[in-house]
Write a structure and sequence with these properties.
The protein is mainly beta and about 725 residues long. It is built from nine helices and 33 strands. The protein has a 24-stranded antiparallel barrel. A two-stranded antiparallel ribbon has the order 1-2. It is globular, with a radius of gyration of 26 Å. The N terminus is likely disordered.
Length: about 725
């Protein structure tokens, strides 16, 4: 409390200019200022105790759940998000020395929008260094919830020497972590059974054990290096086709500077230019209850630490510049999987019908597709900063050793074909008071065009708006694009999205969006031009730090080929899927937290009966401060008529892992996750999960088929810190 007196005496809070509300006096009286500070001081003591229940972790899990539900997106670097969160908690950002690039890390954690980042920097530039962390509540466009969320990740220190790190500390003073994980499905799957005599059926080559190992050194977010290896179930390990051990290895060295060299990466890395029409790795931006999280921000260059075997670059990249200009150059060379189309008798006229894949190399045919294409990618990005305006230009050139030739189908008429492609684009960000305009336009070498333009508006501390228009041509080709949209690829789509976030009271929040979209050409399983609309409304009640309740209604209507069709030609019909969710999180005591959820799905396709789905689960979390043991348990009941009425639910997992299974048919699932800290440097996780189906005798299909109605998964992980 000693800091409050000089703060008030300095008079910095006496008159704060709000763009739309003229002048308002946050601390116009000493009693008011004391009250406001007390409101912040008390939660700070126990904030970290609830972040894994009703706070930031809950929002991140919910966001990932919605991303996966949207398009089965599982390619995001979840390990990178966990590392970033942990590193910023260990070494919070000093708001008095932080650059915009530093604060963009908070954007990656969905804690700040670009408007709020600009507002913090402008406030500091105009009024000088922050004197206390509590001064954040005087920064325009930062509401109380946002300020509380920031507290574990930021600090105030006017001594700039704290920002200096000597080379010895950078190279040797960080954290060394070795992590090993093993998991397996306990029931026998068809792929691991013997082949009948005389049969030519295929089987998995390796064991059912899934292995993961990583070693990493990190000094906060400034310097890191590490290596990661993974073997999927069914893949060989140190034998046969995998004599080198793991099926996939990833490695990196990364440095982030604050002077001319802003970032350097060697090995595996991720890039993000503009709004993702050329490249944006990771989970990306998508429609969700976080309606303002529709614009890319974050760092341009990041180390890659995930095990997805396709969505990253391998080689070197550097970001240099100053306050006015930032230049990024990169080169990447790696081998990727490709589905071989045809090989003639003299090994000529080789092509692949697709590239990328799921990274699984369990059978001879999957192994045959491994590393069949050599991919070379180079490019650059230049950003010019003129006060609050940022203009940028970028280009990417890609070359493949084998031409890409998708199957000849009407919906593939405009897909990319060939062995090399150049795509260029320009982008902009302009922050003006409470408005943030952003956008990107791109064009490939054949003339295909794409455009995205959006706006974020912070009307006041209780109302935020977002708006995005996109128009991606059916003949636009960008092989690493990951921009906002309805589909997983940024082509053949136009749409208009608008979202709103309201805070009508201290305990209430209402979020909603409407997205209208259209596909001017055919798509997979859509044999005609189509359109659709998606809407979401979520009402959240959070009266204190221990209780959060929300209700969510989602309604999506679009068109696809009729599932039941006696005609010789496919035709499209309308479909509508509605989700209603009720969710409760309550911290019952200092040690126990409960999560409860019930969700209903109503799915209707024209000419078919309606399908229904229902899911309910109960979580119990034990986490006593100071105890070496943490426990999370869930019991889940589900009943869905078919796959169209499936329901997704995020599940707690061991460190650096996440799972969002979909539930269809009828049954029950439960899991238990235990973490035990053996010592300061050794932690162990165990996870046991089992699903029981009451209406099935066989689970799964193909080589993953289980002859029975129960599926059990066991996972163990150990982490050494030294």
């Amino acid at each position: 409390m000693r800091q409050l007196i000089p703060l008030y005496a300095k008079g910095r809070f006496i008159s704060v200019v709000h763009p739309l509300k003229c002048h308002f006096n946050i601390f116009s009286s000493l009693p008011v200022s004391l009250l406001c500070c007390l409101m912040l001081i008390q939660p700070e003591v126990s904030f970290s105790q609830v972040t894994d229940t009703t706070g930031d972790y809950g929002r991140k899990e919910d966001y990932i759940e919605q991303l996966v539900e949207k398009d089965d997106n599982s390619g995001g670097d979840y390990e990178g998000l966990v590392d970033l969160d942990r590193n910023l908690r260990q070494r919070p950002i000093n708001l008095n020395t932080a650059t915009e690039e530093d604060l963009k890390q908070l954007h990656e954690l969905a804690l700040l929008t670009d408007i709020q980042i600009h507002s913090i920097i402008n406030y500091r530039d105009k009024l000088g260094n922050f004197i206390s962390i509590y001064e954040l509540q005087a920064v325009p466009y930062l509401d109380m919830v946002t300020v509380k969320s920031l507290l574990p990740y930021v600090r105030i220190n006017s001594d700039i020497s704290h920002a200096m790190v000597n080379t010895k500390d950078l190279l040797l003073g960080g954290d060394y972590v070795l992590l090993i994980r093993a998991q397996q499905v306990l029931e026998e799957q068809k792929g691991f059974t013997p082949v009948d005599s005389g049969s030519t059926a295929s089987r998995y080559l390796g064991s059912p054990l899934n292995l993961y190992a990583r070693y990493r050194y990190q000094y906060g977010t400034k310097f890191s290096y590490g290596i990661t290896g993974q073997k999927d179930a069914g893949e060989e390990f140190f034998q046969g086709t995998q004599k080198q051990g793991f099926d996939f290895y990833s490695f990196h060295i990364y440095y982030r500077g604050n002077s001319f060299i802003k970032a350097v990466a060697a090995g595996d890395y991720e890039l993000r230019f503009g709004q993702g029409l050329l490249t944006a790795s990771g989970f990306g931006v998508s429609k969700s209850s976080l309606v303002m999280n529709v614009k890319y921000g974050g760092r341009t260059l990041k180390p890659y630490t995930s095990t997805n075997e396709f969505n990253f670059f391998r080689g070197g990249a550097v970001v240099v510049g100053n306050k006015l200009i930032s230049l990024t150059a990169f080169a990447s060379s790696k081998r990727i999987d490709g589905n071989i189309g045809t090989i003639d008798t003299v090994d000529e006229d080789v092509f692949v019908t697709s590239i990328g894949g799921d990274g699984l190399h369990r059978t001879p045919s999957e192994v045959a597709d491994k590393n069949t294409v050599h991919q070379t990618v180079t490019g650059f990005n230049a950003d010019f900063n003129i006060q609050s305006l940022q203009l940028g230009a970028s280009a990417i050139y890609s070359k493949y050793s084998v031409p890409l030739a998708p199957a000849v189908e009407p919906y593939n008429e405009f897909k990319f074909r060939g062995s090399q492609l150049t795509t260029g684009g320009i982008h902009y960000d302009w922050a003006y008071r409470n408005f943030l305009l952003f956008g990107e336009a791109a064009m490939d070498e054949d003339g295909g065009k794409a455009l995205l333009s959006g706006m974020l508006i912070s009307v006041d501390q209780n109302i935020d708006l977002s708006l995005i228009y996109r128009n991606y041509g059916k003949d636009f080709h960008s092989l690493y694009a990951n921009a906002f949209g309805e589909s997983g690829t940024n082509d053949n789509e136009s749409g208009l999205y608008t979202g709103i976030l309201l805070r009508p009271g201290r305990s209430w929040q209402i979020a909603g969006y409407v997205d209208l979209f259209r596909k001017p050409w055919l798509d997979y399983n859509i044999d005609a031009p189509s359109n659709g609309i998606e809407m979401l409304t979520q009402v959240t009640y959070k009266p204190n730090k221990v209780l959060e309740i929300y209700a969510r209604w989602k309604d999506e209507s679009k068109q696809q080929n009729a599932s039941i069709n006696a005609e010789p030609l496919d035709y499209i019909v309308g479909t509508r899927k509605q989700n209603l969710r009720l969710n409760l999180s309550y911290k019952a005591s200092s040690s126990f937290t409960i999560h409860s959820r019930a969700e209903w799905v109503f799915y209707h396709e024209e000419q078919r009966p309606k399908q229904y789905g229902f899911l309910a689960y109960q979580d119990l979390i034990y986490h006593q401060l100071g105890s070496p043991l943490q426990l999370t348990a869930r019991v889940c009941l589900f009943d869905a008529d078919d796959y169209d009425a499936r329901i997704y639910a995020y599940e707690n997992d061991v460190l650096y892992a996440y799972s969002v299974p979909s539930f269809s048919n009828r049954g029950m699932r439960f899991y238990v996750v235990a973490r035990y800290s053996i010592s300061r440097g050794i932690d162990v996780w165990l996870r046991f999960a089992q699903t029981y189906y009451s209406n099935l005798d066989v689970i799964g299909s193909g080589l993953d088929e289980i002859n029975g109605n129960t599926k059990t998964e066991l996972k163990a992980e150990v982490r050494f810190k030294f």
